[in-house]
Amino acid sequence: MMASRGYDMTPTMYSPDGRIYQVEYAIETVKRGTLAIGIQAKDGVVIAVEEKPRSLQVSETTQKIFQIDEHIGVAAAGYIPDARIQVDSARFFAQSNKLTYDEPVDVETVAKHLADQSHQFTQYSGVRPFGVALIIAGVDRKGSRIYVTDPSGTYVLYAAVAIGGNSDDITSFLEKNYKKRYVSRGCNITSNCCNKSEI
Predict the structure, then answer these.
(1) Secondary structure percentages of the chain, helix, strand, coil, to 5
(2) Which end of the chain is more exposed for a tag (fewer CB within 10 A), N or C?
(3) Considering its fold, how many domains does the chain have in total?
(4) In a domain, 6, yes or no
(5) Which segments of the protein form a coiled coil according to its record (predicted)?
(6) 24-79: per-residue pLDDT in tens?
(7) Considering the domain boundaries, does residue 46 fall inside one?
(8) Which residues contact 143 (CB under 8 A, 6 or more apart)?
(9) Which residue range is the domain that position 102 belongs to?
(10) What is the average pLDDT across 116-133?
(11) Cβ contacts of residue 64 below 8 Å, gap of 6+?
(12) What is the CATH classification number for the domain harbouring 100?
């Protein structure tokens, strides 16, 4: 990585070579996070996260999977306190949509809302980008959907995806082994991915 020379002091400043270091640092935080996987199936979606409890840790899990609405869940990789802020925002957004339109919110609409929120934190001095990527998965009137948001504010639709630590290797595994089948098969694939990640 090239020396930042002060261009990393704010997320609104581009370096001479066109980079925004604060966003790059946030993306690096995601890569250092625990693995999260999302798989689209014919009859639903599967999301999973890798758990790595410490030897003296009393609680068995750290929450990295969240429910947004009855039909939407989120898996997070990166800085989990940032994920909780975005999850609270998504829950409020989903409930507001339900009250306003008397129907459940689409998965893509939630993904776009969260991506817009992430992007806002790259546009102002005095704030930092969210150091988290989210897999937003659910079933709506369009079928089963999986989107990923990242700290830059982009969101992308996937059939199967891995984010966080070791995601490049797991993505290669998914590219070779993923076929859109049923949730039970998706559970087997995510289990294989998590086992592969531990090697």
Answers:
(1) 35, 25, 40
(2) C
(3) 1
(4) no
(5) none
(6) 889 899 999 999 999 998 889 999 998 877 777 777 667 899 999 999 999 999 99
(7) yes
(8) none
(9) 23-50+61-173
(10) 89
(11) 34, 36, 49, 75, 76, 77, 80, 83
(12) 3.60.20.10
